[in-house]
Amino acid sequence: MKITVMENEKKFDEAAAWRIIGQILEKPDAVIGFSTGQTTGNMHAIVSEIYGLHPFDTSQVTFFNVDELVGLPRSYEGSCYAMIKRQLCIPLGIPEERFIMPGTMDIDFEQECRWFEGEISKRGGADLQMLGIGWNGHIGINQPGTPFGSNTQVCDMDERFEAKVRRETEVPENRRLGGLTLGIKTIMHTKKIVLIAKGKEKAEIIKKAVQGPVTEAIPASVLQLHPDCEVLLDADAASLL
Predict the structure, then answer these.
(1) What would the pLDDT profile of 70-90 be if each residue is shown by its tens digit?
(2) CA distances from 64 to 34, 36, 196 (A)
(3) Are 147 and 108 in contact (CB under 8 A)?
(4) Which strand ranges, in their side-by-side order, compose the sheet holding 67-70?
(5) Sign of the CA dihedral with 188 first, then 181, 43, and 217 last
């Protein structure tokens, strides 16, 4: 595990953006996985800005997101589909056939999990996964206690995030929301992983994930065992290391 610390948030965002661009330049038909949230918006904007100024070949690249909300339509602005499409696919000219995302409503989700994993696999597997980390150490939507051998599945969301989604969408409590996520085993099969975190609120969980024991209680800790994983942090997120 390689740890890279950038001195401030701006340089962190730029470095993360260049990890994405660099993968495309290195392998024009790369399969790249993303994460959504507060950590990623600025880095995606930088990727789009650089592409607008100095276009690079994206005609063969395939994008996907590590997870997606289920029980809500794709039109919800907070869906992973909507965010990645808006932030990256449209600016970089990635068509639907090279944007792999599972469905979210009224489908056989077990079959959809197999389809999602299969679509990535038949393209040779993911070359790069930009991976966020939750306050409790979750990666994708794999919550603490998820077996390291897990495959793609639908599971409960982080409780704080679910509460936020319910407020935004006015979904009643008796309607289940969940997340379709690549499993931990599936994530670990990615050729290269960049775990990204910024801000002091991530410092404690980063310390546990990077320097603590490898345990299913902290899903991100399994990344210590990956052969090509970089932990990319700003100074605040790295402050307890």
Answers:
(1) 888 888 888 899 999 999 999
(2) 6, 11, 17
(3) no
(4) 67-70, 178-181, 153-155
(5) negative
